Amino acid sequence: MEAKVGIRMILALSVTIVMAVTGCTGNNIKLEGSGDKGSLTYKTEDGNEITLSSKGEVPEGFPSEIPLPGGMDVTASTHSENSGNYTVSVEIEKPFDDVLKIYRDYIKDAGYTQTLEMKEEGYYMYSGTRGDELFMITFNQDQENKKLVTGALVYEKKP
């Protein structure tokens, strides 16, 4: 069940990204890449470009100050040079509360100002800004394996 939800999330994210990149204006887009390589790059006629990857790696340029704890696997990622956006989908083999502590400590130490916070049992979402930067996290506790957390890290800084 979790895998189906993750696949749906990635597909929905892909459609949203393509719509954002093309501006829903009917622009033609060009796809580059290969399923064999695990990434695709969408390019529009006006030069917008976004890369989707399932390589299991954090995209080049993702801020090194953002924690990537042991036990973390990258399941997918996107990067847009035009918007300065990085989105990294992750699975973390740690208890939910431990993951939240890592990122709450980072947020506090990094000086982000909270713009949104949602908490429920086994779910956490945070969004904050620091100058012209945005940082957002979303985490869900796996209901069957309580030591597995899935989620996303989003960082954006306009170029």
UniProtKB/TrEMBL annotation:
It comes from the Bacteria. This is Lipoprotein. It comes from Cohnella cholangitidis.
